[in-house]
Design goal:
By secondary structure, the protein is an alpha+beta fold. The protein has a single domain (2-258), classed as 4-Layer Sandwich (Deoxyribonuclease I, Chain A), CATH 3.60.10. The protein has helices spanning 11-25, 44-48, 119-139, 174-184, 191-195, 227-230; strands at 2-7, 29-33, 53-57, 65-69, 72-78, 91-98, 101-109, 145-150, 189-190, 204-205, 217-218, 221-225, 233-238, 254-258. The chain has a six-stranded mixed sheet with strand order 3-4-2-1-14-13. Strands 5-6-7-8-12-9 form a six-stranded mixed sheet. The chain has a two-stranded antiparallel sheet with strand order 10-11. β3 and β4 form a beta hairpin. α3 runs parallel beside α4 (174-184). The protein starts with a strand and ends with a strand. The chain binds one DNA strand of 18 nucleotides through residues 9-10, 13, 34, 36, 60-62, 112-114, 152, 166, 169-171, 204, 206-211, 218, 220, 247, 249-250.
DNA sequence: ATGCCTTCTAGCAGAAGA
């Protein structure tokens, strides 16, 4: 089965792109971020028309996540546990039933955290700490799960075309990278990195300063796998061609293939 | 050194993104 994560930067602006991608790739599951849309206004009919079940967790104007699945969605749970006062729509989890079992899938929009030295950066680190705690709890189930989303973390220098440009950015702070390493150190696997060694694998190119034309990209969209999911990892892909489409998202879809369906 | 570009809401600029 193919599981995709894609920060679409507004579902309303990107609906035609999403529908085209679903038609051409027929992925099993798609995790969306930055839908920027309340649940009532989410274009679910158009997506359901292509054979997908739809679960959303949105809010007005900002953030917003969703899970689309050709398989049945169960135990849909919005919100990352650990802080009832956090009203940002950044986390949606569901269990996907496939012919040979189940896989728990989370759509994650991790806080950007800029500028550093402000409450926004503290919020990012606290959110990552909550994610680590939640992942540790999920691991006790000893089942396949995938944390898929825009992590807003550049894990290593090789994950940026020009790492020196990001030294004062929240995405590349030592604290942000350490939290990401702490998450993986629970026993989880960075799916794309497990399949593609070396530099040059990017998932985001800024709209500004011709970043796409110069291939000035960063790798910040990740699919993080539990051991039981990693055992079934067969490949990973970055779907760069969508960045050439008219009025694209600044992120491209990223996917892993699991031998589960 | 600064803005670059795109989205949103509000209301004809400013915040947020990364």
């Amino acid at each position: 089965m193919r599981i995709v994560t894609w920060n679409v930067n507004s579902i309303k602006q990107r609906l035609e792109h999403l529908l085209a991608f679903l038609r051409e790739e027929r992925p099993d599951v798609v995790c969306l971020q930055e839908t920027k849309c309340v649940d009532e206004a989410f274009p679910r009919l158009e997506i359901e028309g292509l054979g997908y079940n739809v679960a959303t967790h949105g809010q007005k104007a900002f953030n917003g996540v969703a899970i689309l699945s050709r398989w049945r969605l169960e135990d849909v749970a919005p919100g990352l546990p650990g802080n009832d006062a956090d009203d940002h729509a950044r986390y949606l989890e569901a269990v996907v039933s496939v012919p040979r079992g189940v896989v728990r899938i989370s759509s994650i929009y991790l806080p950007n955290g800029n500028p550093i030295g402000t409450p926004k950066f503290a919020y990012k680190l606290a959110w990552m700490e909550r994610l680590i705690h939640h992942a540790a709890r999920l691991l006790t189930h000893e089942e396949p799960f995938v944390l898929a989303g825009d992590f807003n973390v550049i894990p290593e220098p090789q994950d940026a075309a020009n790492p020196q440009k990001w030294t004062n950015d929240a995405l590349f702070q030592p604290e942000s990278r350490a939290k990401y390493r702490e998450l993986l150190a629970l026993g989880l696997t960075d799916g794309v990195r497990a399949c593609h060694e070396g530099p040059g694998v990017y998932t985001f190119w800024d709209y500004q300063a011709g970043a796409w034309q110069k291939n000035d990209g960063i790798r910040i969209d990740h699919l993080v796998l539990s051991p039981q999911a990693a055992d079934r990892l067969r490949g990973a892909s970055v779907h760069k061609h969508t960045r050439t489409w008219e009025k694209p998202s600044d992120h491209v879809p990223v996917s892993v293939d699991l031998d589960l369906a």
